[in-house]
Prior knowledge:
This protein is α/β, with parallel strands linked by helices.
Amino acid sequence: MxxxxxxxxxxxxxxxxxxxxxxxxLSYHGLDAVVADIDTISDVKPYDxxxxxxxxxxxxxxxxxxxxxxxxxxxxxxxxxxxxxxxxRVLEENGYDHVINHYMPDALLDQLNVRxxxxxxxxxxxxxxxxxxxxxxxxxxxxxADARNFNADHRDWNIIRQWSVKLAEDIxxxxxxx
Length: 178
């Protein structure tokens, strides 16, 4: 059976919750998924499939996710890769397309065998964000609405579950399990 690494980067913990939820869905569908914060991963060689998730921060993936993938690109090579991001911008009109077209590190991902990419609405708890992050978010948010208008948990667990089930099916297909 294929061993799957579901690696995530997180700023305030909510992306880690999404990753754990996805890992539970994959496990429920009979796949061997290891969920881990990228800061805890030292070796990617044992894995056959990679799923990477990061929130968008300052208009891009978290830098540690970018560095992790760049460092391991040679090992990951042409193995199947799936990517997802969480971003409040998804909630705005045409937001999903904007996020996919502007916030994904295309030059890096073009070096990999990326099979699917998606974006989910995230969680924004204004009171839990320090002042520096508040200013950064307010100044760099490129949507039409004030970012403070999204002060809530907007993660749609049904959408996340549906994408995770699609991942399970695709992983089974690409690994010859179906």
